[in-house]
Specification:
By secondary structure, the chain is α+β, with helices and mostly antiparallel strands. It has helices at 2-28, 57-65, 115-127, 132-142; strands at 69-76, 83-89, 95-101, 107-112, 147-156, 159-167, 173-179, 185-190. An eight-stranded antiparallel β-sheet has the order 4-3-2-1-5-6-7-8.
Length: 191
Amino acid sequence: MGSALASTGDDLSMRLTLIVLASLALISGCGGGGETMVAPTPTPTPKPTVTPSAISLTDAAKIAGERGKVVLLQLAGAQPPPVWLAAVYQDDGTLVDLRISVLDGRVTGEEPEQPADAKEAERLLAQDRTGLLRAADLAAKTVEGATLTRAQLMDVGGRAVWEVETVTPQRVISTVVVDAATGEPAVKGEN
């Protein structure tokens, strides 16, 4: 009698094993006519695409130039969305920093600079006969196909120069220095 129970227990165990294996085969799509059972994939709803108009250095210079004379314009993208940072010398002798959206050209922030910085900007602007837009144009012609990412009026050896940073599609960074008094460009270096 004990052997009959053992045989019945083994049969039950074998049947349970077969049921589990058959269930797994059905779930995974194995066996039975070669058809695979696949759960339907929901079709994603297409999102409307928005193509923002990217504001170039030249565009940002014109926007900032409505407030005064631009002495610095730099692309900053540490926190999306990226912005143009501009330092603008105003008619009242103050220097103000502006944040300009790269997406739509809106001025999104404004902060005054220190009076000493305004005096330095005034001194450099007195020597400038080229201007930011002309310096940017010269830099773009010097490094063809590059994107302009920064332009700054600065003192180099007692002379006012525009230092314009460019980045090529191959990610080569170059700095073009344009003499603010004469408009003569020279490629300073590549990184």
